[in-house]
Sequence to fold (625 residues):
Amino acid sequence: MKTGRTWWVLIGLLAVEAIVFGTWGRNFGTADNVANMVRHGTEVALLALALLPVVVGGGIDLSLGSMVGLSAVVFGKAWRDGGMPWGGAALIAVATGAGAGCLNGWMVVRLRVPSLIVTLGTYSLFRGMAEALTQGVDAFTAFPASFLWLGEGRWGGVPVQGWILAAATVAAASWMHGMRWGRELRAAGFAPEGARHAGIDVGRRLVWAHGACGLVAGIAGLGYTARLGTAKADAGTGLELAAITAVVLGGASIHGGRGSVGGTWLGIAVIAVMANGLTRLPATMSVAAELTGLMTGLLLLGGMALGPLLRKDGGS
Amino acid sequence: MRRLGREGWVGMALVMLLACVGLWAPAFFEPQPLWTRLASWMPRLVVAAGVAVVMVARHIDISVGSVLGVSGVVGGMVIAAGLPAWAGMAAAVSCGALAGALNGWWVAGLRLPSIVVTLATMVAWREGLRWGRQGVFVNLPDTAVWMGLPMVAGQGLVIAAGLGAVAGLGWWMRNMASGRWVAAMGSNPEAGRLAGIPAGWVTGGTFVVSGSMAGLGAALLLVQSPQVDPASGRLLELEAVAAAVVGGVSIRGGAGRMRGVLAGFLLLACVGPALTYLGVKAYWDKAIHGVVILAAAAMAARAGGKQAT
Fold:
């Protein structure tokens, strides 16, 4: 697996960003700003890390954002209308995410429908369930301070999200790179038929990958709710595309079989630093924040055009 | 099941839904709201038809929503600059065709996966437009609305143009060599190439078609209101793919007909308003859409599995 070149390009991009924003940005390199980046980047980062196993296994998940919305609404519903303590409600919300992900995986494996189509259907279904639960207008607010701390507080000087993200990264890296599970998933994505003949239960790997993806989306839904202080049915709209962008920019192949946690992390970092840095430029050279998305799209296209070239040079 | 075909089943479901509505809520069929509703559906229908062509060629185009947004603003600015409505509509279609050609070049020329290419152009066009317009609407002169015709006639023209474009695409794909090549490339790219089909041109061409249809969608939307919303194409891409899938277009390429897309689109579009007329709350709309998509996909997978064994 030659991901080396992609990594160096992304590291180079990060260095360029650091130099540009460090020179001209206001308060770019301060600890507060770094904490800020972590706070705002965590949900997309979590979703990208969750999506990576699915993509490596040869699938895709378009329903990520909808699962975020559904779990946020389930959390609010269980806490306010169900009268549960927020810890219990959070458990139910995360379980909802995991169940939703397993449903995706089950339909992909059992009904043999491509994951793009299954998750396109559940993209509507889960969002629709969130809207039906809130009757389209209801919003949950006034959560207890101990819950909001998850989104706004610090622990040991680091935003709480930073710890969650670190735990998720360690879990993803050990799963994908340290355990047999990850290698089998990679084999399943690279050549499903070959993996089956090698004795790998491809279906079970895919259901697990989708289920884990849903579980993490549930956690991201809680993080989103805690950061903004409200849970609404439209929570997380569009996050799936941001996550796919980060994963692909990080060098994962959309055809499956290739991708790494490190690369995904670099992809996330390049996007998050750019989004933050562009808002910190002084007024004389201010560019609109919308430019972030434009540059992300261009980066993705450029990265892809360079990708085959880089891999060829990297020796195959 | 095979005798009826995928499109036939979707058509039957649509007829049954409409029959139920006709029995219990005939108000749904009152001519004026129905006419208006049909006209307002046309932009999304032509976009879905364009995406279906790309899917038949075993690719996907998820940039159509953003392309529709850009084309609409370009066309609107042409009209706002004082040119007649038809010039603005032509500008919108050309703009869409250009954007589609760019996608096609990335996919066919550089052999990059279409989902990633069109994801990138989707983000780039959408955010570029947001940057350029800052969400400001384009104001059109009153003469541009319905091309200066009375409303009912203008709506009729929009409906005729939309249905005509879809019928034309369907005829092209069934009766012309270049149209048949699309399905041939989708069902087996390697065999198609060996049979002498200009593979790159066909693949790239399908993206020009979907871009042009997105531009046409923008043009048909343009004439319906005195303002152009730069965000009007948001989330349209997934709706378009869904309509194609429900209408029997295979995501694996090679299969799909325009009448199926029409039936699939109408089923998804009608189910919401129809159920509202039958007393189901509107906020169930999306969840029902999801169930319809999953049911259609599961049925297609079952039929495909049976044929294989």
Observations:
- Chain A has one domain: 4-313.
- Chain A touches chain B at residues 60, 62, 107, 111-114, 116-118, 120-129, 131-132, 134-136, 241, 244-245, 248, 254-255, 288, 290-294, 296-298, 300-301, 304-305, 308 (CB under 8 Å).
